[in-house]
Design brief:
Bound molecules: uridine-5'-diphosphate, magnesium ion
CATH class of the largest domain: Alpha Beta
Number of domains: 2
Distance between the termini: 16 Å
Radius of gyration: 26 Å
Number of helices: 11
CATH architecture of the largest domain: Alpha-Beta Complex
Helix content: 40-55%
CATH topology of the largest domain: Spore Coat Polysaccharide Biosynthesis Protein SpsA, Chain A
Strand content: 15-25%
Shape: elongated
Mean pLDDT: 84
Largest sheet: 8 strands, mixed
Length: about 325
């Protein structure tokens, strides 16, 4: 029997953990020929998420519910990495704990992989109903820009909710970067992907962990993680400024040769050039600094997550 493993990052989701389990049990009643394993990743929750998970573990059939509890809040991307690197299922799914990712789609996803021969199936929201307008606008703009400046191609509305074959999981785990922009990583590894569309669903309980600042940071780091275009942009900008400066220098030179005795007051032009170039220099230095900071973080080679406790026994893991 094939095992479908569901990786569920949870950060302060005490209300959702049990509801999630029930919803999954429901769906797998229709998928009798598969066995499911849920792996909850407690991403350093401050509420009773871990206790709730343990309750589900003891109520569920032996071996169907696993958990990894991280030593602090590492962020969703790191939590997913923790789950993926420990996963053993034949198919692995990533799902949010808040049931915004309809479990029923799993049926279509399994079909896409088994019947149509895809390597993975990813859910895509076709509506953003129930989402604040500003968030949709911002998100659309982000996809527009990132697709133009990076090698990866992201699709607006694509979610983290997906089901993939083992080999896809292995290739994602092999990308050990610390600054993990998962959407970019999925797009980068390639493979044959089928989009499965669905209508936006609101979370069942609890609160979203995102705010505008967090989203901005997410977009920004995704951009820096996959684009070196800004660096090339700096080079072009430098060339343009040099060219303009050259023309201007010629003009001043010729004018001076023609009328050497005319007194020239240059306050305005000097101020403007100085301030403009000062701004450009500081901005580009900052941009280079951004990339440098990332190199620094990667070079430190810190682990992507630290585990505090788990019920996944490692012997079983090494058998495989
Ligand atoms: N999450 C996490 N660590 C974090 C933030 C979020 O594991 O630092 C989990 C969260 O518990 C949920 C999923 O990531 O299962 C998506 O979070 P949320 O629902 O807040 O995001 P939204 O659906 O609003 O984009
Ligand atoms: Mg959510």
């Amino acid at each position: 029997m094939k095992i479908v493993e569901l990786i569920v990052p949870c950060y302060n989701e005490e209300k959702c953990v049990a509801l999630f389990y029930e919803a999954i049990v429901d769906v797998f009643k229709e998928l009798q020929s598969y066995r499911f394993v849920i792996t909850y990743i407690d991403d350093g929750s401050k509420d009773n998420t871990l206790e709730e998970i343990k309750k589900v573990v003891s109520a569920a059939e032996e071996g169907t519910v696993q958990y990894i509890s991280l030593s602090r809040n590492f962020g969703k991307e790191s939590a997913i990495y923790a789950g993926l690197s420990k996963s053993r299922g034949d198919y692995v799914a990533l799902m949010d704990a808040d049931l915004q990712h309809p479990p029923k789609l799993l049926i279509k996803m399994i079909d896409a992989i088994e019947k149509d021969g895809y390597d993975r199936a990813t859910a895509r929201r076709v509506s953003r109903k129930g989402e604040p307008l500003i968030r949709s606008v911002f998100s659309k703009a982000f996809y527009h820009v990132i697709n133009h400046v990076t090698v990866i191609d992201l699709i607006s509305g694509s979610t983290d909710y997906c089901l993939m074959r083992r080999n896809v999981v292995a290739s994602i785990v092999s990308m050990g970067e610390r600054e993990r922009f998962t959407k970019g990583i999925y797009a980068w590894v390639g493979f044959k992907n089928k989009w499965i569309e669905y209508e936006n669903v609101e979370r069942v309980a609890g609160k979203t962990k995102w705010n505008i600042r967090g989203l901005f940071h997410y977009a920004y780091s995704g951009f820096v993680a996959f684009a070196t275009t800004p660096l090339r942009g700096i080079v072009y900008l430098g060339m343009i400024i040099t060219f303009v400066a050259f023309i201007y220098a010629m003009r001043i030179g010729i004018a001076t040769l023609r009328n050497p005795l005319v007194p020239r007051t240059g306050y305005a032009s000097i101020m403007i050039t100085m301030l403009f170039l000062g701004g450009v220099i500081i901005t580009t230095l900052g941009m280079i600094g951004e990339y440098l900071a990332r190199i620094y973080m990667e070079v430190k080679n810190r682990p992507i997550y630290i585990e505090r406790e788990t019920n996944i026994d490692s012997e079983q893991e090494s058998e495989k």
